[in-house]
Design goal:
262 residues; mainly beta; four-stranded antiparallel beta sheet; 0% helix
Length: 262
């Protein structure tokens, strides 16, 4: 590359003299260097690289156009990281050799979404048909939840969600076995993920009935007089209307406190 002068001298024949002409100019221009590299593809949260071939120079600088992703240049290897899911352009600026011009080479970069994740805090939701069941969602990565993305398969169950604690509540189910399906609503860097947990609904237990007890001491007295009996009741009370002498409806015992006077 540069400016040169071409000198031409004739070789004369017998009738002529030799002459020299030095007015011929030669100009050699620089040509552009070039960058060759494959598309970089990697998953969100990771990194990717390409090995770059530079014709007519070396790598001077590498950067993501319009974004603050991290780039590392090691010889001809360029590594990219720190980007959200999406498509980008890696710009590589060359440091040219003396006969070349510097250029900006462009290489495509694609960052893939990754699956979100979560887990149920227990393996089974169990409750009675007159109540409700609940389960917490733990280790949530890459999204959020909404009742519209939850269902009990094959039912019209009522489902509610409490953000504080990531708690799912299920009710309005008859006795039976079901599955609760929960789908994570992903953010920009993740894919949705759906998981299920078994639900077991039983009938309410029947309350047991305990009979009340009554203890009465014998009544003994002389003809023409009166006697009394002490009454002890557990699980109820004794009322005047409930006291009588079997076979003698004309006799009217009196209830005084916990005593029956005859």
């Amino acid at each position: 590359v540069g400016n040169y002068t071409l000198i031409v001298t004739t070789i004369p024949d017998a009738n002529h003299n030799a002459i020299t002409d030095s007015n011929i100019k030669i100009i050699v221009n620089k040509i552009d260097s070039s960058v060759i590299g494959d598309r970089i593809t990697f998953d969100y949260g990771g990194s990717g690289f390409t090995t770059v071939t530079v014709v007519g120079g070396t790598i001077s600088k590498a950067e993501i156009v319009g974004y603050s992703g991290k780039t590392i240049v090691e010889g001809n290897k360029v590594t990219v990281s720190g980007l959200d899911a999406g498509d980008y352009t890696l710009q590589i600026t060359t440091a040219p050799y003396s006969n070349y011009n510097s250029v900006n080479g462009l290489i495509d970069v694609s960052v893939n979404r990754v699956d979100g994740s979560f887990k149920f805090a227990k393996n089974l939701i169990s409750f009675t048909s007159d109540s409700y069941g609940s389960v917490s969602l733990e280790n949530v990565v890459g999204g959020s939840f909404n009742p519209s993305n939850m269902s009990v398969l094959g039912s019209s169950a009522e489902i509610s969600y409490i953000d504080d604690g990531n708690v799912v509540m299920v009710s309005n189910l008859a006795k039976g076995d079901y599955y609760l399906s929960v789908t994570l609503i992903p953010d920009a860097n993740h894919n949705p993920v759906t998981k299920t947990i078994p639900v077991k609904v039983t009938n309410p237990s029947t309350p047991s009935i305990v009979l009340s007890t009554l203890e009465i001491t014998p009544v003994t007295f002389y003809y023409g007089g009166s006697g009394s009996s002490t009454v002890s009741v557990a699980g109820g009370t004794v009322e005047q209307s409930g006291i009588s002498i079997d076979g003698h409806p004309e006799v009217k015992p009196n209830l005084v406190g916990n005593k029956i006077v005859v």
